[in-house]
């Protein structure tokens, strides 16, 4: 892992910037500087990262209550405190979790963290090639293709261009059995944060991703295809699953989220 750290520590990573925003320790100086730049453009970025992580927790618990016992977390970053395997295995010790990320340093760190966990693993892969993910030896070893899967695409699709994102999600969903769920959180356009779009896009072009662009609510809903949205549908990330209240001010929030079931 040391060589990977040496090779990649000078270039910020989207996964490690997220870790820095959450106050994690699995990041480098370049990632912390990028996080500071992001906060200078979007002061609520840290709040949004924490709200997004809280949504992840609630979505995993919902799926556990629905009987899901295996999870595929794509664009997972580094599985540190409060990530999927901790949440799921605290309630169901044999719950199986596969983390997928394009960042080799995130995957190397994850391998160390999960070394003694027989029911969780991390693999390096690119979500633009879903068949390679679903056919990966690490995925096939842990996940039963005949049992429902909780697919997690949390705060990552806004890093993937349209031409890649929509067909990739469609093929991922097609490869999962009936009764599976998909949880998506996504940066939404037409918010105060969207005004910083050019600066944010430039920041992330210097990382391991090629873009960082919000989408409209209608564009985000397209990802769910023919799945059945779980109430309350697509809402601000901090409002799921209770739904909006009359006095609930989203403030500077620029992330929406939803969970859906594949019939």
How many strands? 8
**Shape estimate:** globular
| Structural class label | alpha/beta
Round the Cα radius of gyration to an integer and report it: 17 Å
Q: What does it look like?
A:
With 263 residues, this protein is an alpha/beta fold. 40% of the residues lie in helices and 15% in strands. It contains 11 helices and 8 strands. Strands 1, 2, 3, 4, 5, 6, 7 and 8 form an 8-stranded mixed β-sheet that branches. Strand 1, helix 5 and strand 2 (96-101) form a beta-alpha-beta unit. Helix 2 crosses helix 3 and helix 4 (45-65) packs parallel to helix 5. The longest helix is centred in the first third of the chain and has 21 residues, at 45-65. It starts with a helix and ends with a strand. The model is unreliable at 1-6 (pLDDT under 50).
What would a concise description of this structure say?
With 263 residues, the protein is of the alpha/beta class. It is 40% helix and 15% strand. Strands 1, 2, 3, 4, 5, 6, 7 and 8 form an eight-stranded mixed beta sheet that branches.
């Amino acid at each position: 892992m040391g060589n990977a750290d040496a090779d990649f520590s000078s270039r910020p990573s989207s996964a490690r910037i997220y870790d820095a925003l959450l106050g994690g320790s699995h990041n480098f100086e370049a990632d912390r500087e990028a996080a500071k730049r992001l906060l200078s453009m979007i002061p609520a970025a840290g709040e949004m990262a924490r709200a997004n992580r809280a949504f992840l927790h609630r979505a995993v618990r919902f799926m556990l209550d629905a009987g899901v016992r295996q999870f595929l977390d794509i664009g997972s970053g580094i599985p540190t405190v409060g990530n999927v395997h901790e949440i799921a295995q605290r309630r169901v010790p044999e719950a199986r979790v596969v983390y997928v990320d394009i960042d080799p340093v995130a995957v190397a760190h994850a391998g160390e963290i999960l070394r003694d966990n027989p029911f969780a693993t991390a693999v390096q892969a690119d979500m633009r090639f879903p068949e390679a993910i679903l056919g990966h030896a690490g995925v096939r070893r842990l996940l039963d293709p005949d049992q429902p899967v909780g697919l997690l695409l949390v705060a990552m699709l806004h890093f993937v261009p349209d031409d890649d994102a929509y067909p990739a999600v469609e093929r991922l969903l097609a490869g999962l059995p009936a009764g599976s769920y998909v949880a998506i959180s996504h940066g939404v356009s037409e918010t105060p944060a969207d005004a910083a779009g050019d600066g944010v896009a430039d920041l992330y072009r210097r990382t391991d991703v090629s873009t960082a662009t919000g989408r409209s609510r209608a564009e985000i809903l397209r990802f769910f295809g023919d799945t059945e949205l779980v109430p309350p549908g697509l809402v601000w990330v901090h409002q799921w699953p209770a739904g909006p209240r009359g006095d609930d001010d989203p403030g500077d929030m620029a992330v929406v989220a939803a969970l859906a079931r594949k019939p």
